[in-house]
Predict the structure.
Amino acid sequence: MRTRLLLTGTVLMSMGLRVQAQDPQLSQFYAAPMYLNPALTGNTFQDRIALNYRIQWPGIAPGYETYAVAYDHNNAKAHSGYGFMVMHDEAGSNSLAFTHIGASYSYEARINHSNAIRFGMRLGYTTRQFDMGSFLFADQVIRDGAPTTLEPVLVQRTSYFDASMGAMYYGEHVWLGASFSHINRPQQTLLVSGDTRLPVRTSIHTGYRIAMDDRSMARTKSTFNIAAHYKAQQDWDQLDLGVYIDHNPLMAGLWYRGLPGVKAYEPGYPNHDAVILMAGFQTQKQLRIIYSYDITISWQGVKTGGAHEISLTYEWPARHKNRKFHMVPCPKF
């Protein structure tokens, strides 16, 4: 049974002003390219559909769940990409949840055959809500367990327009991108009268890849990748560092998430979050399946149950062997 919390209106108003969760983060952030950076919209040979699912901290029921589905298309003649995505996230026992629907566009400016700059924008609409029935207010107790409260402190649902933008440079070996979400600072408060703007989320992602055989990057089937992803939102920031090997059709990687020596949760607790193990494969029909597990190494410990994440990505039509290399060489997960 879901725990019911006894809260006065004053405490709940204070909570509503302070507790505004950051955006959900994915360990397989490159498997959700439009969420990572709208400039990655359409960075495929033609069409792509992606599904993502993450369950975090299942050991602390009910945990945190994130679902996402996205489709994008590459229009090579117009040097453009088009796409849309839907993401739903539900956090904690009070079902604080949001659903985001967004449409993305990107444009690619070629520098030469193997180098380019991409620009992108995502415009969306978000609904945020929570489960009022999971709270028990003081006035309900006073009124012999009344089913609803008379406290006019919260609204159960709020909606807002949301805008994001990004850019990316890439060559055959290296990529560097940056994206900025919630650039319009939408009002997200769930208080009847309040002002809580959604802070801008900044993402900087970069990496380098090399061929593990004697072939060119356009023809190699084995690459070694080094990548980093820094993200920040208001007072919160985090860094992912990782390596992975792509030996078609198999992929495997190891990542670390944290900012030790720079920030700490509390005095004496280094900022270590998780070690992430990833593995996957791609079928001959270009269906890519990736699974990852976050091993919690923070002060919360293994009792959290870590995090499980799976992504499915399907691209079509099939890539021709004689097609020249011109896609963004980002990791696939």
Summary: Helices lie at 9-18, 33-36, 138-142. The two ends are 36 Å apart (CA to CA). The domain at 5-316 is CATH 2.40.160.40 (Porin). The chain has three helices and 18 strands.
